[in-house]
Amino acid sequence: MGKLSEGAKEKLSERLSLPTSAIIGDPLIELTGSNQLRIENHKGIVKYAGNETKVNTSLGTLLVTGTSLVIKSMIPEEIVISGTIEKIEYLK
User: Burial letters for 14-44: b for 16+ Cβ neighbours within 10 Å, e otherwise?
Assistant: First the structure.
């Protein structure tokens, strides 16, 4: 969808009832309590350990820290991380 103009992307997102960020490829990050994190539109895992996971996104590297972190599922569009999530931040 990189060839669509910004206006076309906005109209498409309205028609599909989707956020514009989903159409342009920005990550969608959803935290459920402190036990599950879902990241859509990721670009792969940089690092995976029990207390730290780094995920590439179009906005940079997302660092997730906590305890007993486990990648519950991973498909090209989405990663689900579970465990005790203590901090989520973008690295510069």
Answer: eeeeeeebebbeebbbeeeeeeebbbbbbee
- Paired tokens of 25: 């490829």
pLDDT, position 15: 78
Residue at 58: amino acid letter: S
Closest CA to 82 of 30, 31, 37: 37
pLDDT of residue 7: 74
pLDDT in tens, 2-55: 566 767 767 776 777 766 666 667 899 999 999 999 999 999 999 999 899 999
Do the bridges between strand 60-75 and strand 42-48 make them parallel or antiparallel, or are there none, so unpaired? Answer: unpaired
How many C-beta neighbours within 10 Å does residue 79 have? 22
φ, ψ (nearest 5 deg) of residue 4: -80, 145
